[in-house]
Design goal:
SpoIIAA-like protein, 6 helices, Transcription Regulator spoIIAA, single chain, 5-stranded mixed sheet, globular, 144 residues, alpha/beta
Length: 144
């Protein structure tokens, strides 16, 4: 993706410009769904923008309190499993307060979600994935 956006003619591009280009591939917005804050992620995710997307999501999670539903169903593509593995080890997840986070994913991406959940759990962070919005909302409402 990035190679398509930046010329290959030896042009030097600042890290801030690269960050801005990568951030144009996705959008993160939030709202409320019942008593839970909902963070919706849309656009495109891949190996090149996964770290930036994760950093921005963590930043958003730090600014909200209570139960959170992260809805990634409108996000196209996913980082490779290798990228997910290394990403989960590089992010400063333990510095963030524990909270109830439900991630709403498409059923077709269940295997990828399970790998992400397991990799996160191996670093001491627990995400709970759901493939049905009603089940995610019920889990959050139960306060588990």
């Amino acid at each position: 993706m990035l190679s398509q956006l930046i010329p290959a003619h030896g042009v030097s591009v600042s890290p801030d410009v690269v960050r801005q280009v990568l951030a144009t591939a996705f959008a993160i917005d939030d709202g409320l769904l019942g008593d839970a804050v909902t963070i919706r992620v849309s656009g495109v995710s891949d190996d090149q923008n996964a770290m930036l997307m994760a950093e921005l999501l963590l930043d958003r999670l730090c600014r909200v309190s209570g139960r959170v539903l992260v809805d990634v169903r409108r996000l196209h593509g996913r980082p490779s499993l290798a990228s997910v593995y290394f990403l989960m080890r590089e992010l400063p997840l333990r510095q963030h307060p524990p909270r109830e986070v439900a991630i709403l994913e498409r059923e077709a991406l269940r295997a990828h979600a399970e790998f992400h959940r397991t990799t996160a759990a191996n670093t001491g962070v627990c995400f709970t994935y759901f493939f049905d919005v009603a089940a995610a909302c019920a889990w959050l409402a139960a306060g588990r």
